[in-house]
Amino acid sequence: MSIKPVKLVIIAGKKGRVTVKYPFQEPVVTSEFRGEIEIDPAKCIGCGACVRACPPNALELLESEKETILRYFVGRCIFCWRCVDVCPVSAIKGTKNFELATDKFTDLYTLIVHTRVICELCGTPAETVKMQRYITEKVPISEEYITTCPTCRKKQFVEKVATRMVGFSELKK
Amino acid sequence: MPNPEAVTKYIELAEKNSGVIHIEGDTVHIMVPSSKLVDVADAVFNKYNCSFRVCAGIDERPINGHFSLVHLFTDDKAGYYVAIKTYLSGDNPVAPSIVSVVPAADWCEMEARDLVGIEFTGREVYKLVLPLWWPSNLHPLRKDVPYNYRPELRIESEKIGSSSEYGVIPLGPYHPTLHEPEYFELYVEGERIVDVKYRGFHVHRGIEKLAESRMSYQQINFLAERICGICGFVHSTCYALAVEKAAKLDVPERAQFIRSIVLEVERIHSHLLWLGVAFHLLGYDAGFMHVWRARERVMWLAELLTGSRKTYGINLIGGVRRDINEDKKQKALEALRELYKDFKSLVEVALSVPQVKRRLTGTGVLPREDAIKLSVEGPTARASGINKDARRDLPYAAYKYASFRVPVYSEGDNLARALVRVDETFESMSIIEQLLDKLPSGPVLLSDFEIPEGRVGVQVVEAPRGGDIHYVVTGRGAPYRWRVRAPTYANIPALRVMLRDQPLADAPITIASIDPCFSCTDRVVVVRDGKVEKIKLIPVV
Amino acid sequence: MSLKSSILKKSIWVFHLNTGSCNACDIEILDALTPYHDAERFGVKLVVSPRHADVILLTGPITAESLPKVLNAIEAAPRPRIIVALGSCGSGGGIWHDTYSTIGGVNKLLEILKERGIEVDAVYYVPGCPIRPEALLYAVAMIKGIVSKKREMKIYRAD
């Protein structure tokens, strides 16, 4: 009769107890672990780059008349941190947090509310105020284009060019 | 490496059958008219001894008004991929079936019929992928059907069958021995299994259609990783390699090394998982707990190298997102040394326990000729004497820089399959040490590149269960067509032969010995074992 | 509900219900029973039939093919029924929340259950992809009342 199976008991005895008694003890988490993300509302400009990069649509941009809301739904997040990679202002930071269980569905949302720029000429809302400020800091744009929406901007630009080239006032007659 | 002289026989074959041939890298593209399809498939499979991998139906009506059908083979001895394509009419696509000459092509033809709507002549047809109540004129993979269109849900399930001569045992979809929902209906005579009916596809999530519509190239890496939670990195790497091959990108060498290292870490974790589950199914729970205790260190190692215990998420087209610095390398080597000592003493003891050894020896035998005809993959093939491994035959990533042995046994029973996996685990540890030693310096991610439209890329990667194949046709911003075939799909027909005349108690361990991963697969298999009848496929209607 | 709190002070027997997931969350559930994490400290045991279950662990975005069988299994569980939706697929439908073959996560399932008159007493959501075994133990500890929840809805103004 083989006594080899008994050797397993000896192996078990040598290893001893290996249980990590979570939650009464710290769990084993390495330095590289990807947990929840944290968005800094002061830095976020509401551009939507993270929304376009997110595979499960956990980050969404909800637009209304006056406001744009960036909504992070941690329930659908796959913790890939692509949003951390692509954010142009580095507003998204990763944490090691994985203790996210809850019994209320609305606990899983984080909302960041931005105000939108309202076009002076036609009154439709355009991009967010902070994104406009971000763009104008990088690229000089003249005053009259800043306060208008893209459609009106196009119309203004075409009129200007047409006036200079053909004499638009002549055409109007 | 591909052998250039081997290509001449394909050139002759194409000319004889009025086809057009085009060779790009290591892929041979042959386009033939649909009337010659069966002859060409017969020559490639039976005369030149290629392995059949998958067939894919493509809706090309927005481009040229036709449907098309592609059959993918690999010439393992010469190192070539062979893609045989035929065009079908745009209004009523009908193709001849190649099941009579290539028995392994049964299911993928039915999948093309369900999802793309191509009809096949010369064979029995049945509904495979979609639920039985799905409207028969709605084919989700056609380009005019949106990806999120859901027909009205019908909540009704099939009734359990009844038989007057045999006892009926319904197994599943939720059962303690199964991790995934799958429904087996066992017809038994006393203790002997006589017939099996199987209804799968509970895990069909619409991945291929999703990739063509809502996603972009870089996002699909994360989608591919979640096809299967146990061998996910294989799918993600295979997709990235296929797109890089199609776009002819020059990926940095360091990234390929890191991909190979993480692939081997995944192989170790998957084989240890299988061993634990096999012990559990045999009733040897002490072995299960010990093996999973040893496996926990591999999960910590994976988390250290990639950032997550599973679904690593480090692959992008053009390279990887994380690097391995000196500190991680030392920790990895130390973890492997400890695992080696632990696992070696453990597996010697565990495999010599009488209840394990006697139940594994001589059960579930798969003879070599059947294995070749059904094109089985992975440890199932290597345990039956077939010397096939995509890491050595069609080298990819950094495997050409590592030297390793491919274990082959010839008995073909459950014990042989277990021993193949144990040997492969030790070989993987050696491969990781060699690659960590030879890691070259340089960047890990390619930044500036473009992916042109209309190119084709095929790639096979050796998963823990066998060869996994991805077929990509590039489009604008997202692939035009992406076809995935996981290895378990090719191994399940072998269950027909392995379950023949087995007592009921040996069925769970035999089914588990091919390491089925139904979330990769979702296929139908039927076994009939009569006393004098031959084995034949019976469709589930 | 007082019946629920008195029952859950003792051991919790769980039934694992896979509605079409990729299996990563499922092997982490098995991992929670192995020596390093040892869920049996809380009295957690995997049962073979939903009729013995206190808590149903749901993984996967419920697919169209598996929906009738999931409804049968949940109906078979006795009151009080508690569902713990695990992972990104369970809580929100996952990366495939809007394809033709899935119904979109556990909230849609709760609507269908309500239509059929099957009552569910509590639902817990555990995000993660896949969940860590420690996250599952955290949820079990929360059900038993040992720890309190940390995640709350946050609204910020960016200007």
Describe the 3D structure.
The complex is a heterotrimer of chains A (173), B (541) and C (159). By secondary structure, chain A is α+β, with helices and mostly antiparallel strands. Chain A has one domain: Alpha-Beta Plaits (2-Layer Sandwich). In chain A, 32% of the residues lie in helices and 18% in strands. Chain A has seven helices and six strands, in the order αβαββαβββαααα. In chain A, the strands form two sheets. A four-stranded antiparallel beta sheet of chain A has the order 2-3-5-6. Chain A has a two-stranded antiparallel sheet with strand order 1-4. In chain A, a hairpin with a 3-residue loop joins strand 2 and strand 3 (67-73). The longest helix of chain A is centred in the C-terminal third of the chain and has 17 residues, at 150-166. The mean pLDDT of chain A is 85. The radius of gyration of chain B is 23 Å and the shape is globular. Among the domains of chain B are: 4-121, 2-Layer Sandwich (Beta Polymerase, domain 2), CATH 3.30.460; 248-451, Cytochrome-c3 Hydrogenase, chain B. In chain B, a hairpin with a 4-residue loop joins strand 14 and strand 15. Residues 523-541 of chain B have low confidence and may be disordered. Chain B has helices at 8-16, 37-47, 61-64, 106-115, 207-213, 220-225, 232-247, 253-281, 285-306, 326-350, 354-360, 368-373, 378-382, 390-393, 414-437, 488-491, 493-498, 507-513; strands at 20-24, 27-31, 51-60, 66-75, 80-88, 94-96, 119-121, 167-171, 183-189, 192-199, 315-316, 319-320, 456-463, 466-474, 479-485, 527-528. Chain B is 37% helix and 18% strand. Chain C is an alpha/beta fold. Chain C has a single domain (2-144), classed as 3-Layer(aba) Sandwich (Rossmann fold). In chain C, strands 2-1-3-4-5 form a five-stranded parallel beta sheet, sandwiched between helices. The mean pLDDT of chain C is 87. Chains in contact: A-B, A-C, B-C. The interface between B and C is large, with 48 and 45 residues.
Key terms for this structure?
heterotrimer; A: 173 residues; alpha+beta; Alpha-Beta Plaits; two-stranded antiparallel sheet; 7 helices; B: alpha+beta; Beta Polymerase, domain 2; Cytochrome-c3 Hydrogenase, chain B; 37% helix
